[in-house]
Amino acid sequence: MSSRLLLARRFVLPLLARSRLKTTEARRRCAVVTGSTSGIGLGIAERLAAAGFNVVLNGFGDAEQIERSRAALADQTGVDVRYDAADMTNPQQIQQMIADADAAFGGVDVLVNNAGVQHVCPIEEFPDDM
Q1: Within-domain flag for 82
Q2: Which of the residues 40, 72, 115, 123 has an alpha carbon 20 to 30 A from that of 1?
Q3: How many domains does the chain have?
Q4: 125 in any annotated domain
Q5: In this structure, is residue 52 part of a structural domain?
Q6: Interstrand relation of 81-84 and 54-58 (parallel, antiparallel or unpaired)
Q7: Cα dist from 35 to 32, 57, 114, 117, whole Å
Q8: What single-letter DSSP state applies at residue 110?
Q9: Mean pLDDT over all residues of the chain?
Q10: Which residue, among 48, 58, 7, has the nearest Cα to 27 in the 3D structure?
Q11: What letters, b where the CB count within 10 A reaches 16 and e where it falls short, cover 57-87?
């Protein structure tokens, strides 16, 4: 089992258990997971989809790989999986992503803010504002 699935199990399953959602109750609900084109975010999206949530993937990466991941997740779970490339540093794009999810699914029931920014450089060159 991949490390992202193990991490998602550790964090997402308790959330689902606390909310007492069964798969049938979760059906047609929508989860937006930022930073979900790979890694932990994708693992979280996979667990939510397996629980019956329609999912909006979000993040940067290779367009073909993102589409393969999206299609595979939809095929494996039978839920609607969409991708939105909204930039989390752009408030208008964020608002549009949520509006699109609302229009497609009738609301957003779960929002997982997993997007992050990685700045790599020697410590001496690291900006003060980061």
Answers
A1: yes
A2: 115
A3: 1
A4: no
A5: yes
A6: parallel
A7: 10, 8, 5, 10
A8: E
A9: 84
A10: 48
A11: bbbeeeeeebeebbeebbeebebebbbbebe
Q: Look at 87 and 117; give whichever has higher pLDDT.
A: 87
Is residue 120 domain-resident?
no
CATH number of the domain enclosing 64: 3.40.50.720
Domain of residue 62 covers 3-114
- The span from the CA of 20 to the CA of 34, in Å, is 23
For residue range 17-65, what is the model confidence (pLDDT) as tens digits? 554 444 445 447 999 999 999 999 999 999 999 999 999 999 999 999 9
Secondary structure (DSSP) of 1-34: --HHHHHHHHHHHHHHHHHT--HHHHTT-EEEET
Amino acid at 88: M
Structure tokens at 79: 């839920």
pTM comes to 0.74
Which residue carries 């993937």 as its tokens? 57
